[in-house]
Design goal:
The chain has a four-stranded antiparallel beta sheet with strand order 1-6-5-4. Strands 2-3 form a two-stranded antiparallel ribbon. The chain is an alpha+beta fold. It contains seven helices and six strands; from the N terminus they run βααααβββαααββ. α2 runs antiparallel to α7, α3 packs across α6 and α5 runs antiparallel to α6. A hairpin with a 4-residue loop joins β2 and β3.
Length: 208
């Protein structure tokens, strides 16, 4: 949006939420419990991918060379690789922010609470812009992995599926924030980050 944070009050926006980044995880959990399309999709996607893993474990069970240890090894490779993807995931967020007009972008991480954030300092984003930012890593990485799934040797099916499931699960923050926007869609929510103070603000036009 072409509006600065200090102009929000003059444009009939009121403060809805002041989110300290240390409280991100409780905030995300709260809105993933709401019955919004984003929360429902998040759980459905994880359920489908978990079902795929179970199917792959059972698919070749009766073959003579079947080894549960080998299957678990391939799954563990996938889970490990999903952590390697985290910097790429956040980099896509930053690129998406820049496509929407953000200039001052950065990253934040809390290894103790295990969250990672791409931030755009004082860039006011509306729901449409935030959807682009939040969904870009999920869509791009999932698409790449699905293409790989259909082009790798069957021994690596579990590895790719493990990456897909772990990465989708790690997108909880993105889908939780999107669920917040959807839950409050009648308020025309906008948001911006205050990088210095590690706070994100959410404003809405309740009477508009």
């Amino acid at each position: 949006m072409k509006i600065r944070p200090e102009e929000l009050d003059d444009n009939d926006y009121i403060l809805l939420e002041k989110l300290d980044h240390k409280e991100l995880l409780p905030f995300v959990r709260t809105y993933l419990k709401k019955r919004t399309k984003y929360a429902m999709f998040y759980y459905f996607a994880n359920l489908i991918l978990f079902g795929l893993l179970v199917f792959l474990f059972l698919k070749n069970y009766h073959l003579p060379d079947y080894s549960i240890a080998n299957q678990l090894n391939h799954l563990s490779y996938g889970i490990a690789l999903s952590f390697v993807l985290l910097p790429f995931h956040e980099y896509i967020h930053v690129l998406a922010y820049k496509t929407q007009g953000a200039e001052n972008t950065s990253y934040d991480a809390n290894f103790k609470k295990f969250y990672f954030m791409a931030l755009a300092d004082r860039f006011v984003a509306n729901k449409k812009e935030f959807e682009v930012v939040a969904l870009s890593p999920f869509i791009i990485i999932s698409t790449i992995l699905i293409i790989l799934y259909f082009n790798v040797d069957s021994d690596w099916d579990l590895t790719i599926s493990g990456i897909l499931l772990a990465h989708t699960a790690m997108c909880s923050g993105d889908f939780g924030l999107l669920s917040y926007f959807e839950y409050n869609k009648e308020k025309k929510v906008v948001t911006y980050d205050d990088i210095k103070n590690k706070i994100s603000y959410f404003y809405g036009q309740i009477n508009k």
